[in-house]
């Protein structure tokens, strides 16, 4: 981690702790090394700084909208964090190539299956491209839900400290039952099941498109034993 990256992450982390009440202890469940996918809900522009500054591991990256590279300040941050740009609503070959390269190199890859921010904290429908990126490498997927960042500006302007909460669910693999070629219907089912893994971590008022928990299935999900250790990199 470069000095600039350390200073930036420390400063953002300190600002969050000063201005907000933070409940982020469950991030300690994310392994500190090894290739994994972190799938989270997308509330707004604070999501990236929140996770990047509080995740205590060196090899980490994520996907962010390409427009952030166009502004001098946010572009500077994107380059320091070496994030992966994506065109809004699209998952092109270059994005997929860079995501796979990061995973091959042992990075944590953060993705937001919704594809766009909800602004209100209410979970929207998932984007099909997220399933391909999350499942193609057959790596553990950690569902991570957060809420409270949509209230930051409103509460701070009324001189109140907002509460920000992060919850980490049980890691899992996306697999087709019985194996075989994964078709369009399979990917749709995988996407729904992955989104429900996020929804179940959220308070009911934030579950949005996945509020009906009676529709939650786990046919394409194989949970990772929580006691399983991720193999450390060679010395």
Distance between the termini: 18 Å
What are the segments in which pLDDT stays under 50 over at least 5 consecutive residues? 228-235
- Let me know the number of strands: 9
CATH class: Alpha Beta
Task: Figure out the total of helices.
Answer: 7
Provide a descriptive summary of the structure in words.
The protein has 235 residues and is an alpha/beta fold. The chain has a single domain (3-223), classed as Glycerol-3-phosphate (1)-acyltransferase (3-Layer(aba) Sandwich), CATH 3.40.1130. The protein contains seven helices and nine strands. The chain has helices spanning 3-19, 47-54, 72-81, 93-104, 128-135, 152-157, 184-199; strands at 21-23, 36-40, 60-65, 84-86, 108-111, 141-147, 163-168, 172-174, 221-223. The strands form two sheets. It has a seven-stranded mixed sheet with strand order 1-7-6-2-5-3-4, with helices on both faces. Strand 3, helix 3 and strand 4 (84-86) form a beta-alpha-beta unit. Helix 1 (3-19) packs across helix 2 and helix 5 (128-135) crosses helix 7. It starts with a helix and ends in a 12-residue tail after the last strand. 37% of the residues are buried.
